[in-house]
Write a structure and sequence with these properties.
Blueprint (H helix, E strand, L loop, with lengths): L3 H25 L9 H20 L8
Helix pairs in contact: 1-2
Length: 65
């Protein structure tokens, strides 16, 4: 069974991967915008929210999710 701490770590890792992928798109040159475009902003906000949710789950410990 998955615990709340494990679920929190999963959310944090998912958010970090999404942030890295968002900036990798810029590095590869995809898109028409110079810098961070509107779709990337939405993705970064979503990734940030996933990280915040993950951080709030960490202190709940080994209780089942």
């Amino acid at each position: 069974m998955i615990t709340k701490r494990q679920l929190g770590i999963g959310f944090i890792l998912l958010g970090l991967v999404a942030i890295i992928a968002t900036f990798a798109v810029d590095w590869l040159g995809a898109g028409n915008f110079q810098g961070v475009g509107p779709a990337q902003r939405v993705a970064l906000i979503g990734a940030g929210l996933a990280i915040v949710v993950g951080i709030t789950l960490l202190p709940l410990g080994d209780r089942p999710a």
